[in-house]
## 1
Amino acid sequence: MAQETDSEKIARLEREIERLKAENERLRHTLEEALRAGKRQAAPFSRRAPKAHPEKPGRKTGDRYGRACRRPIPAAVEEVVDALLPERCPHCGGECAESGIISQYQTEIPPPRVEGIEFRIHVGRCQRCGRRVHGRHSRQTSNAVGGAASQLGPRALALATQLNKGVGLPYGKTAAVMEEAFGLRVSRGGLCQALARVARKAEPTYEELVEQIRSSASVTPDETGWKVGGQLWWMWVFSSPQSTVYSIQPGRGFQQAAAVLGSDFDGFLVRDGWGVYRSFSRAVHQTCVAHLLRRCREMIAVTGLGAGQLPRAVQGILQHALRLRDRRDRDHVRGHGLAVARGRLEARLDRVLQRRYRSAENQRLAHHLLRERDAVFPFLYCPGLEATNWRAEQAIRPMVVTRKVWGGNRTPRGAHTQGVLLSLLQTCRQQHRPIQPVLQQLLCSPHPIALNFTAPHRSPPQPSVPPENSRAHLSAISGIRVVAR
């Protein structure tokens, strides 16, 4: 066998290097796809392999038991039932002698009953103008008569709204629950038309919620895909500590975001890295730190030791920033000490971003952080400003589940109904308001009305720009006017 020459050896090694590079790239793409698949909410909803030795299920003993609680005794007892002592012992057959009485309580649902109500509407004419005039009772939901004289009542419609829009049941299953639980038969088409009427009654309230979002000190937006008539649309959500607005629109651009938020929004915008949000030039931006940390963790898992230096460095800086925020909120650091720690973190991030990186992944991360640089640390300057967009993520998560159950809406009108009623339901949850009275008030109103949602029962703290030096710094790093609200 002829001995291999140097040139042949070099050529062979180069081919081997190319083969290993291609294999390395293939494995990297495979790992990235596996990481992405772990975040997709597809059956069977398991992201990792089961634990080899899982902990025993149920409550733990000792200090790890958790919060101890029990069902309270009912405030009112409507019925007392005696469970009499048997004459004979069920075990040995001997006679039993009563020694006392102990109490047990149940909280039960009463047997459902459907009410049939007839409204006798008195009709007449005005003696002055001659127009037809009719009476209206406060429990009526509509003035329709004739072929549409038989309708669902406000309590039934409010429950159907909660089941379909709040819980996410399709119209068919909502109708099934109404029939099984209450013996109330209703068609899917009838429910669809009824909920559209509810949305029309709630339209002024929805517009008031949009105005409240636009005037909020801090807003957290997000978006996810949604189908309307089989076509890809987008469900937008804009959430503040007091209210939430949903809007299903055919695009994912600035025009759609500004349709709800307003193009001149000048409050705090806590958002992810989607470039559209940067177009709100008057806002004070806070990028989601959780998204950046997740991206760093994925890069560390995919890249090698050398290429993982940037994500490790960024991860350490962001985690340090979150710990500094917690110390500030616990009043363990303030004033000059806080400013020094904050400045050191900013200097560390600037030094990391000034370096040059050879791998494409590190270059993409560095370029993204350079674009987002001014939006990384505002939460350290503004007490009460959230560091992540968790609020919008939590608001949009139920809609992701609903999307998997019945896909979306068939028409743009249905999509608008979805957004209006979802906004009302989610805002009531945030403000700890019972939704049934709110829906019944809307339904029994002769005309669409705007309900007052500006005075929540529990008002959460609002972000603020304290100290003049912080205000000046935020104005300097963002190039905009910081508005105190």
## 2
Amino acid sequence: MEPRPGPAGLHGAGRAIGAAIVVGAVVSAVWITRDGYRRPRTDDALVRANVVGIAPHVSGPLVDLRVVDNQEVAEGELLFVVDPRPFELELERARAELLLARSQVQGLERSVASAEAELRRLAPEAAFATDHLKRLQGLTADQFVTQDRFEEARVKALASSAALERARAEQAKEKALLAQFGEVNAHISAAEAAVRTAELNVGYCQVRAPFPARVTNLNISRGEYARAGEEVFALVDTRAWYVLANFQESYLASIRPGMAAEVSLIAYPGHRFRGTVQGIGWAVRPSDDRTVGGLPEVRPTLNWIRFAQRIPVRVRLDPPSPSLPYRMGMSAVVTILGEPKAPADAGRADR
């Protein structure tokens, strides 16, 4: 029969076990701390996507509504139609005004041509009357020409010059009314612009999806009046999904854009999703941020504990599986895995 250990032996064994527990706890704490900085992890994260409000460019009642709430839509798919009849009438009026503008321009072109012809006719007459007056002026001193004849020539020269000036003014007026600048006529350009604007408004009556998306917050029905620029409903952009993870600022030194990340979603237990760090936030507004007269108000505090601020880190998610779709607002747990591994082929190519 083996002898039992005495009190001294039991005491020594207890001390050894206690020391082992302390050493194990210290080693575990050090390992967990180092792993926390090497692979930062947070459960303060949510799935996000870009949400775009859909608003018409024109106002009017909805005559056709093609979607329902939460429906998936493809890029270019028709969402709803605003009553196009007023805008179609405006387009017809603009096209008619374009025809009128072209007709008016043709009439103005003929007026300009007539004014130029009149100017060409009067210019030689005025020049001849002026030259004739100069010749008679030299003959009146020797009394070869009577004073009456000289006065008659002078009046005719003045009348010819006045008629020429009127013709020049009329020509300038008709050219100004024509509004022709090189190859561009202002009247026709303005009318064509009005037609294009009316065509745009007719096209704006049909509102289509700008990208693949999901309809959300649809609380309207056919017949409701939509106002230009006011949001009717929203689209969730399904082309890109990401997680907005709030990490403590003490971990930011271990996080860089391009790092691989592992994401767990509470909605899908047992599944792991992959992503890539897209960027780290640069600004966070404190919850007690106040200003007085443009100066910050700093409240005195005697707290011995300082809580680390959380900074948002955006992680771009890989495309989802059809059986495990992402939904905006899902709770997530994010772990930063570190720098992505280089492909094996790329390593061989560098040799």
## 3
Amino acid sequence: MIKFSRTQLQAIENGAAKRSRLKKIAEKSALASIESAYPHTYIYSPPGLGKTFTVNKALETAGIEHYTISGNISMFSFGISLAVINHSIPKDEVVVIVVDDCDEILKNAQNINIMKNVLSGNKVYSYEKSLQSQWNNLSPLQQAAIEAHSDDSRMGFEVPTDRFVFIFTSNFKLADDDEVRIAREKGLQKAVILGHLNAIRSRCKPADFELDDNEQWGWIADTILNEECINLSEEDKIILLDWMYNNWDNMTERSIRTAEKMAEAMNDDPTGYRDDWEIDYLK
């Protein structure tokens, strides 16, 4: 039976430690006091590591009720999701919301300014446009939620977010102070958007997972070995992970999803899967 090398075992141990830290951060974040100045957490790591899966499972294991919504949707759709959640949950309960992927809701200054108010200050999501054109596309629950957050004095709707604890999981890192300073000193055009992203960072507790190649592989390996995400024997999991490790630099994609697809190839063609791997996943 193939076995992992010492270097691989150390990488798995390091990856497992990083994943364990993520689980602890998720649980601690979900239990944060809503009265805290910084109840929200922003988790960054390279893509393909199953951050949201790990966070959700950690919260489920801890018995913490939470809701997951995508951050890769329009700000209007994001606001609708907040309105439905706020409308559906008793008003005296703290609500934990895991936001998966932030590309869209943090894509420009306008969206980021809305999110600033969601996280701090007024702690409210505001949509200030007419809903007439979208109304018939909304579900009855969404319409009821919008009506509960609207009044005749203004267009749109407004959702209070003062009882929400947000846990963001993202594949991009928010700009830190030095990045903003350097961009401004160099007169770079991106300095403005970096400044806005830095403002989001300042409103959250950041949890940055900077991983080298070994740690990234070890994180994936720990997930494959200890979570029920692929249907393979223990020996076949080791064969798959060993192949990924030895071909890491030449792979066209490196993620848990890659391992899942490779596992399907093993199951579909037990004798010729390596040829498929080389064709599909090597440069």
## 4
Amino acid sequence: MKIVEPQLDWKNSWKYSYPYDLLEIYGSLADYGYAYAYANRRKHTLELIQKVAEPGAKILDVAAAQGNFTLSLAELGYNLTWNDLRKELIDYVELKRELGNIHYAPGNVFDLGFSSEFDVVLIAEVIEHVAHPDEFLKKIAQMVKPNGYIVMTTPNGGYFLNRLPKFSDCPDPSQFESRQFQPNSDGHIFLLHLDEIKDFAKKTGLSILDARLITNWITNGHMKSSYLLKSLPRQWVEYLESFTETLPLIPREKIHTGFAVLMQRVSNV
């Protein structure tokens, strides 16, 4: 992936994306918690995809923004389709592309006519931004080939600092439709819990093959642990993360901030 330098004539969406690229792919530690959390999420996401798909497989990256997962997967030899509502980001992704096969499909992914087309669909940090996550997952499943896969990452609703509502406790999710699809944590509507993910999968004809609780509160820099991250060697942070991922389910649910989930389409949806 090429390293680019910001220019005065860049579009606003490019200027907005660049600071995230500094943290996500260019190695900046200006925000230790964000950088470590993204690196951990990236590791698990790529592991789950490589677990079930060989290079050459067709992958759709939904709401892919500046395309860092798209580019990483293309460089690993996968056949990528990038999707995002912001068409102007295509040229920004191309600035960074060094190699790999990428097809661009901007717009609302549900208006693009994809049906049973992809070996893998990646929905990274997307489902928490929609008012009807159950319907969203059902529509995504229709884009996957029979026996194909969905890889999803999303914040963990069971995390002890979460203050957002549980989707299954909301009698009328349509009240949130006007604020869906907003970026970053300000756009989070619901944070899903493990039991909800299992329920969605079952109703959608998906089988959960792997559900990982990832990124503990220290790695994420919460409760002023970012000061600790500045002094800890990276290998210590990674060891701590690996250790907490082996804890029993109940404490794991409370101290980890995110999920990485691998699902397979096992029936028509």
